[in-house]
Design brief:
Order of helices and strands: EEHEHEHEHEHEEEHEHEHEHEHE
Structural class: alpha/beta
Distance between the termini: 26 Å
Number of helices: 10
Strand content: 15-25%
CATH architecture of the largest domain: 3-Layer(aba) Sandwich
Strand order of the largest sheet: 1-9-14-13-10-11
Largest sheet: 6 strands, mixed
CATH superfamily of the largest domain: Stage V sporulation protein AD
CATH topology of the largest domain: Peroxisomal Thiolase, Chain A, domain 1
CATH class of the largest domain: Alpha Beta
Shape: globular
Helix content: 25-40%
Radius of gyration: 18 Å
Number of strands: 14
Length: 329
């Protein structure tokens, strides 16, 4: 069954987001828990800075929750998820590494909620993050190369977000169900056009979610995709219209929300940190203010690696979706 219903309704009891200077200058800047304007975060390398982003987000969420978790589910974009795993040396909690590319925030939430549903833990943490400079070095070219970015490209978000889930009832915000993504590949090969590569997977996940849950877009206060950007958002809307679903004005893409047009990020934001900081900043703030009561949060990912790209492979996509809603029981 691709859609999971959480009978225990794990509650979101704490959240925290930390973002970089460029992200703080965008429309969502005031919703982040912490802004770090030094791209090195006081460290010697960008990779070390990314690890520190993770530690800051996870420890911040735990402190906000006021409950000591038993296990952490987290991941990032770098080879063998070194940012998350190295960060966990400092956090010191049991750790399950996650890799869903930029869909990792939703993937981590699904696993964190499933552990609670199964009775394997009472309190868990889901986290994801990325750094612009580290992603450029790994997937494209180091910043020192100074190459010109094509207009279809997106800007990897420097930031991390963490969410604490618990089987307690101290919070009204619950993860109630989730739809696990399938790997979908429409043959896109351009590493600078992630939106086109991920949109088919996003359409597949949303369609299956609506069918399995017998819901429609109007049943949600908002529907978020992770980082499709402008091209991917338009493609997703078109693909779903062909299948009988009009997303209308309830649909937003985190990649388009996080930056302003004048920041010149081409098609928008991307990276694991894109949906992570939006969820643990903007979206949860909306819940807390009473603007949202039920949201479909779908993080999207492009499952490429430098090796597969050099070998001429296409870029498969995946999208994982989680329903977060305010409950009364």
């Amino acid at each position: 069954m691709s859609t999971i219903y959480f009978q225990k309704q794990p509650r979101i009891v704490g959240w925290y987001s930390v973002a970089g200077k460029k992200e703080s200058e965008g429309p969502l800047g005031k919703t982040f828990s912490r802004i770090e304007k030094d791209e090195y975060f006081g460290e010697k390398t960008h990779e070390c800075a990314e690890r520190k982003l993770f530690v800051t987000a996870i420890e911040g969420a735990i402190q906000a929750a006021g409950i000591e978790p038993e296990i952490v589910f987290a991941g990032d974009l770098l080879n063998q998820i070194v940012s998350a795993s190295f960060a966990m040396r400092d956090v010191g909690l049991p750790f399950v590494g996650m890799y869903g590319a930029c869909s990792t925030m939703a993937l981590s939430l699904i696993n964190a909620a499933t552990f609670i549903e199964a009775g394997a833990a009472h309190t868990t943490v889901a986290a994801a993050g990325s750094h612009f400079a580290t992603a450029e070095r790994q997937y494209r070219t180091p910043l020192e190369f100074g190459n010109q970015r094509p207009p279809t490209s997106q800007w990897t978000v420097t930031g991390a977000g963490a969410t604490v889930l618990s089987d307690t009832k101290k919070s009204p915000y619950a993860v109630t169900c989730a739809t696990v993504g399938r790997v979908i590949d429409y043959g896109v090969k351009d590493v600078n056009n992630m939106g086109a590569a991920m949109a088919p997977a996003a359409a597949d996940t949303l369609e299956r979610h609506f069918i399995n849950t017998k819901t429609k877009p109007a049943d949600y206060d908002a529907i978020f995709s992770g980082d499709l950007g402008q091209i991917g958002e338009e493609a997703l809307r078109d693909l779903l219209k062909e299948r009988g679903y009009d997303l209308g004005d309830r649909y937003y893409d985190c990649g388009k929300l996080v930056y302003a047009v004048q920041q010149k990020v081409d098609m928008g934001g991307s990276g694991c940190g894109c949906s992570a900081v939006t969820l643990n900043g903007f979206i949860m703030d909306k819940f807390k203010r009473g603007d949202y009561h039920k949201v479909l949060f779908m993080a999207t990912g492009a499952l490429l690696s430098p090796t597969t790209c050099f070998q001429g492979e296409t870029i498969p996509g995946i999208a994982n979706a989680v329903v977060i809603e305010e409950v009364t029981e």
